Amino acid sequence: MGNPNSGKSSLFNQLTGLRQKVGNFPGVTVDKKSGTAVLNDTTEMSVIDLPGVYSIYPKSADEQVVTDILANPQHPDYPDVAVVVVDASNLNRNLLLFSQIQDLGVPVVMALNMLDIARQQQLEINAVRLAMQLKVPVVKINARVGEGLELLKQAIEQQIGQPVITKELFFDPELAASTPDQDLKGLITDVRHHYQLTNNYLALQYLIQHDGFSFLARPQRVKLDGLIEKYHFNEVDFQAKETIGRYKRIGEVVKAVVTDRRPLDQSTWSQRIDRILLHPVWGYAIFATVLLLIFQAIFAWAQPFVDGIDGGVAWLNGTLHDRLPAGPLTDLLTDGIIAGVGGVIVFIPQIAFLFLLVSLLEESGYMSRVMVLMDRIMRQFGLNGRSVVPLISGVACAVPAIMATRSIGSWRERLITILVTPLMSCSARLPIYTILIALVVPGRTVLGFLNLQGIVMMGLYLLGLVAALVAAYAFKLIIKARERSLFVMELPTYKWPRWNHVGITVWDSVTSFVWQAGRVIIAISIVLWVLASYGPGDALEQAENRVRRDYRQLSAEQIENRVASEKLEASYAGRFGKILEPVIKPLGYDWKIGIALISSFAAREVFVGTIATIYSIGSADGDNSSTIKEKLAAEINPETGGPMFTPAVAFSLLVFYVFAMMCMSTIATVYRETKGWKWPLIQLAYMSVLAYVSAFLVYQIMK
Amino acid sequence: MPHRKIQKRSVADLKIGEKAVIDSFSDQWMSLKLLEMGCLPGTEVCLHCKAPLGDPICLNVSGYCLSMRKSEAATILVE
User: Fold this and answer.
1) Which chain A residues are Cβ-neighbours of B66 within 8 angstroms?
2) Sign (positive or negative) of CA dihedral A376, A381, A386, A390
3) Banded pLDDT at A189 (limits 50, 70, 90)
4) Hey, which residues does A451 pair with through a beta bridge?
5) Domains within chain A, CATH numbers bracketed
6) Which of A50, A332, A401, A516 yields a CA-CA distance of 20 to 30 A from A318?
7) Inter-chain contact B37–A372, Cβ cutoff 8 Å?
8) Is residue A275 pLDDT above 90, yes or no?
């Protein structure tokens, strides 16, 4: 544990080798993470990484986790040894938390990190003297490169064997100046007696924080209220007194251990960059450029890789079809599985680019500047500058984005952020956007360097963003505030990105996309293939015979195509689609798109795979080597005789997918984060209505 | 003390590059968080930059950079 941005997660990665997300803005670890590390030849230890906090008094949901564990020795995660990571370049503030944890009676080891940065700032820290002053083991580490880990392990081993816990508290509430009308000593003694506590500071925590202690039964909490009343104890006053008291002692300690040769008033490197990046004009201009670059990268730079994979999958499919003996198993493999999986892996390049750029922004520290830049604007919409992180991460995936809202202190701002985040176009929508845009928007270059397709893509993302802001504004008017909103936030110094961390993030995101999305997609692809290849009774054979009887005048190839599509229509999937058709007809969709819509209710990335599967089945065998895009372009609307995917249909679908909440994982995450079905259902309802109405309007206007 | 609060300057009134020493807080609830972040009475702060619309602001306090909204800064009274 430790302050935000002090290097806890880096140390955790170094110790466990587990891959975990580390970034350069406060609040990357929003939940605890655990892993195992080798302590010595015979022992393995389990390491838990907790969210960063500035003090033991939580201000938001993610900070609550730390207090929950440390204030309750019965908690399953209560540590044998607490390793507190301390940022040496900001010793004062880091020692506040350290002294509080120490006073709770937990055996502690201080991992003194970021000494290199302190040295750059002309701060020299005497670790030995610090250890003597605080009477705790202090180990110098460098979490970024992994120095000092062996010494740290030795210190942990010692603290487990023979814990050194200072009897004398850094700040003893009992000895704190009591006002004449307040018998503090009596109060603390009473609390300790009633709850069998051995520690004065823990007793104080019971007094101040019992409302948030879920491990205390209700009558126990009510009893504490009674004690507070009896002794006229003022929690807020006392908490302020405690912080000031601690800082006073910390000031003395720091004076004794730190040699500060920092020239007064010299503006640091970071501050000079801030003047530009937070500049009234340049600040926004740079932010807009960064966003534009991200979209340009996703669409234009990733395209050659996408085309390569798409072509490769089509080639593989065609080859397998030719080589393997014809039969239902081959059809399942090629039309079902490979077509579906191809729809997933084709988007790996774009997702990799997206996560690469977003993690570069996080690592460098620019993301927290964006929060500052956007707070004033976000506030107009009932959001918080911190909402920017969920909204930007929402471009990758709404699930981690919604979890990242835990760092927003005010419940109202957090709830609004959760409700609107899924409107941000996540990477699962990217496949749909890509394929449909490529189909109806020409790949022209405009203004010399911008790709027209890239601009339309950015337009869709902006549409999602604008919708999110408008929805947020509407919710701001509906949802009433429960508590005050707070923005006070540390701005970390700029750091050069660690490429291995960036690499890990990209790798993790891509593999989890492939595994999680891939499994669902394969399963749905197979089910869909079965549903699309079989029908009730002999309906399929009847359809085939009917075609062969009625269309004798056509060429052999045309008959095969006709047979294939009539068979699909007669299958189970075709019947489902037909039932749905009246509902989606006003949006311009036919029953084939209807099948894809239904199957993508679980996860929207299934849409493209489904379309690929349906059109593979719905056409004669010779077509198997064409790419998904070619298949869609060749699809004919039986009513007009023109292509099925006209700009009106394509844009209607695009707008539908911008707004629709088609993701089971997101619904489940919102349920978990809001602790109930009320908000996820409201969210599902408003987004579905929005999607349907907008798609309807788009189709009717463009038709 | 409400009548005295009006005359007092707060951190929100500082100009870029201007320094001041924290005197007291006008909002107790907010002061808890600010104290934890190292804004103690007697500490020198320096307004180092402002976000484009003049809000939030960035303060230098005890060797690091802290950003906060103007309304929050207004609760930090300076000498």
Assistant:
1) 488-491
2) negative
3) confident
4) A445
5) 8-161 (3.40.50.300), 184-260 (no CATH), 303-346+498-645 (no CATH)
6) A516
7) no
8) no
B63 vs A261: CA distance, rounded Å: 12
Interface confidence, given as ipTM, is: 0.86
Q: CB-based burial of residue A330 (10 Å sphere; 0-12 exposed, 13-18 middle, 19+ buried)?
A: middle
B63: nearest CA partner in chain A: A90
pLDDT category, A622, cuts 50, 70, 90?
very low
Q: How confident is the model at residue A329 (pLDDT cuts 50, 70, 90)?
A: confident
Chain B residues closer than 8 Å to A239 by CB? 32
Q: Name the helix (H) or strand (E) containing A627.
A: none
Q: Which residue has the tokens 């047979």?
A: A563
Question: How many residue pairs bridge chain A and chain B with CB atoms within 8 Å of each other?
Answer: 116
> Distance between CA A512 and CA A290 in Å, rounded?
26
CB atoms within 10 A of CB A195: 15
Please check whether residue A573 is in contact with residue A535, taking contact to mean a CB–CB distance below 8 angstroms. Answer: no
The alpha carbon of residue B60 is apart from the nearest alpha carbon of chain A, in Å, by 9
Which pLDDT tens digit goes with each residue over A477-515?
988 876 777 888 888 888 888 787 788 778 877 777 677
**Two structure tokens written together for A364:** 């460098």
Q: Sign of dihedral through CA atoms A139, A142, A144, A149?
A: negative
Who among B29, B32, B66 is closest to A490 (CB)?
Answer: B66
Nearest by CB to A278, which of B29, B40, B49?
B49
Identify the residue among A117, A249, A278 best suited for mutation to test binding to B, counting B beta carbons within 10 A and taking the highest. Answer: A278
Query: Which residue type sits at A112?
Result: L
Asked if A372 and B67 come within 8 Å (Cβ–Cβ), the reply is yes
pTM: 0.77
pLDDT confidence of residue A517: 65
Q: What is the DSSP string of A71-96?
A: T-TTSTT--SSEEEEEEGGGHHHHHH
The predicted-structure confidence for A247-267, as pLDDT tens digits, reads as follows 989 988 888 888 876 655 555
Q: What residue type is A19 in one-letter code?
A: R
Instruction: State the average pLDDT over residues A37-66.
Output: 84
Q: What pLDDT shows up at residue B1?
A: 45
What span, in angstroms and rounded, lies between the C-alpha atoms of A659 and A686? 9
State the pLDDT confidence band at A422, using cuts at 50, 70 and 90: very high
SS3 A67: helix
The first and second tokens of residue A196, run together, are: 């069998």
CA distance A411 to A674: 10
CB contact under 8 A, A488 and B55: no
- Residue pair A486/B33 in contact (Cβ under 8 Å)? The answer is yes
Q: Looking at the complex, report in whole angstroms how far the Cα of residue B11 sits from the nearest Cα belonging to chain A.
A: 13
| Candidate from B36, B50, B62 with C-beta closest to A243 | B36
Task: Tell me the shortest Cα–Cα distance from B7 to chain A, in angstroms.
Answer: 24
Q: What is the pLDDT of residues B35-79, one digit of tens each?
A: 988 888 888 888 888 888 888 898 888 778 889 999 899 999 988
Residue of B76, B63, B65, B66 lying closest to B14 (CA atoms): B76
Please give the class, per CATH, of domain B2-78.
mainly beta
Confidence (pLDDT) at A262: 64
**Tokens, residue A603:** 């996860």
- pLDDT for A181 beyond 60: no
Which of B29, B41, B56 lies closest to A385 in CB terms?
B56
Name the amino acid, one letter, at A146: G
Question: What residues in B contact A240, CB-CB < 8 Å?
Answer: 28, 31-32, 35
pLDDT at site A608 = 79
Q: How confident is the model at residue A474 (pLDDT cuts 50, 70, 90)?
A: very high
Split at pLDDT 50, 70, 90, the class of B5 is very low
**Nearest Cβ partner for A490 among B34, B64, B72:** B64
How many CB atoms lie under 10 A from the CB of residue A63?
24
